[in-house]
Write a structure and sequence with these properties.
With 197 residues, the chain is α+β, with helices and mostly antiparallel strands. The protein is built from 4 helices and 12 strands. Bound molecules: ligand 5BZ.
């Protein structure tokens, strides 16, 4: 898996490849790893497909119950802390590397990384999954604060293209979700290999 989330001057953009693998076999070449937790917060999934589906499912359910009772949106930080609790409290039986990102009226676009052991870190951008190791240099060089939406989308798609080209566990198509005050927007980009410019 290659997953990345970046904040920009209007919100956040989440990006992911679409490969689920079992060894060398591609079990799913159109996986959707960008999973909603509620209408203003999504999570990017890496690691075990089953474990990350289970964690996302529990948090979706908990947030839905909370909103039914309280009637208001949860903050990105609250959703991320619920994911962290699931990961931390089950750290010895879960393999889940998650990035929670969204938009709320208090902090605008936000990204939180949750590592395998359940450490939660607030970050301006984050990448994870097996493919992320191949784009550390690219991201360090090209990441900038307060990019425009177009610049952020270009950064996300180029980073994923490189990771999907080099990492055997990443591939398929690029999926993105953009979250701003106006709502959410999905994109689907086929053809992920590096094209000769
Ligand atoms: C289908 C099926 C069987 C399991 C598939 C399955 O979890 N594959 C994993 C790799 C893995 C992980 C831990 C144990 C075994 C196999 C996978 O493709 N993970 C991707 C993200 C998830 C959310 C799709 B990525 O991290 O590469």
């Amino acid at each position: 898996t290659s997953i990345i989330a970046v904040t920009f001057n209007g919100g956040v953009i989440l990006g992911a490849d679409s490969r689920t693998s079992t060894g060398n076999y591609v079990a799913n070449r159109v996986t959707d790893k960008i999973t909603p937790l509620c209408d203003n917060v999504y999570t990017l999934r890496s690691g075990s497909a089953a474990d990350t589906q289970a964690i996302a499912g529990y948090v979706q359910h908990f947030i839905a119950q909370h909103q039914a009772e309280e009637g208001d949106h949860v903050t990105v930080k609250t959703a991320a802390n619920l994911v962290k609790m699931m990961a931390y409290n089950n750290k010895d039986i879960m393999q889940a590397g998650l990035i929670v990102a969204g938009f709320d009226k208090y902090g605008g676009g936000q990204v939180y990384s949750i590592s395998l052991g359940g450490t939660i870190t607030a970050t301006p951008f984050s990448m994870s999954g097996s493919g992320s190791t191949y784009i550390n240099g690219f991201c360090d060089k090209y990441w900038r604060e307060n990019m425009s939406e177009e610049e952020a989308m270009d950064f996300v798609t180029r980073a994923l293209r490189y990771a999907m080209t080099w990492d055997a566990s990443s591939g398929g198509c690029i999926r993105t979700v953009t979250i701003t005050a106006a709502g959410t927007k999905r994109q689907f980009i086929q053809g992920s290999l590096i094209q000769p410019t």
